[in-house]
Design a protein that fits this description.
- It is built from 5 helices and 8 strands.
- The chain is of the alpha+beta class.
- About 15% of the residues are buried.
Length: about 230
């Protein structure tokens, strides 16, 4: 090889290196630019469910000139309540006392005692609990005066069993929105860059949360979750 050609060899290698380096840098920039193309969308999933737990709190009281009389009156109400639920087919252990309070009043030297009792019905037989609520005025006819703070609450406790399917449905809904955006923009949807799951919300179905005095809830629920997802575009 001529000596002049040997002298030019390092220059050629250097030039080739610069060309290749420039190509790799350009390709890297192009890839980085593509990777920055993304769209953020939200996906929604909703499901109607029925509560599987009913909790009915009953608050009542009695006032008398002496403690023994007030307590005896409350005890009679407690017996009436237990009989009421027993007639409806609830087991005895479904009803438990959850609190008692005693207050003393002095009105111009006249002393009186008020005993307040709270009992709670807890059952997974939601249909039977609904029938019991509809007959709550039978307790009034038996002389039991339910006070403020009484009411039925229905709870859906099996949320963990439907979470995976609902998250999948919300993700599918989000991808559908991203694909619509991509079609309108002349691109296509790639993988997920980032995803955030919102919290699960349980509300009354169709907004029917009431139903009259003493009915504080409904067994018919709507579970809702919203996910926020960033999709790559290509």
């Amino acid at each position: 090889m001529p000596r002049s050609a040997i002298g030019l060899l390092p220059v050629g290698i250097l030039a080739a290196g610069l060309v290749l380096g420039g190509w790799f840098i350009g390709d890297g920039l192009r890839r980085a630019k593509v990777s920055d193309r993304a769209v953020t969308v939200r996906g929604l999933a909703e499901r109607d469910v029925t509560a599987d737990l009913a909790t009915w709190t009953l608050a009542y009281s009695a006032t008398a000139p002496d403690m023994a009389s007030a307590q005896a009156s409350v005890d009679r109400d407690s017996q009436s309540i237990r009989a009421f639920f027993g007639e409806l087919g609830f087991p005895a252990d479904a009803l438990q006392p959850t609190g008692v309070n005693v207050q003393t009043f002095n009105n111009n030297g006249v002393v009186s005692f008020t005993v307040r009792q709270r009992m709670t019905l807890r059952t997974t037989d939601v249909a039977r609990a609904q029938r019991a609520v509809k007959r709550q005025f039978d307790l009034v006819r038996r002389g039991v005066m339910l006070e403020e703070g009484s009411g039925m609450a229905y709870t859906f406790t099996r949320l963990n069993t439907i979470k995976p399917a609902m998250v999948a449905a919300a993700t599918k809904d989000a991808r559908a929105a991203a694909e619509q955006f991509a079609r309108d923009s002349g691109v296509s949807v790639d993988g997920i860059r980032n995803a955030t799951q919102g919290y699960f919300e349980i509300t009354a179905r169709d907004g029917d949360g009431g139903g009259g005095w003493g009915v504080s809830d409904t067994p018919y629920k709507k579970v809702r979750v919203v996910t926020t997802i960033d999709f790559y575009l290509r």
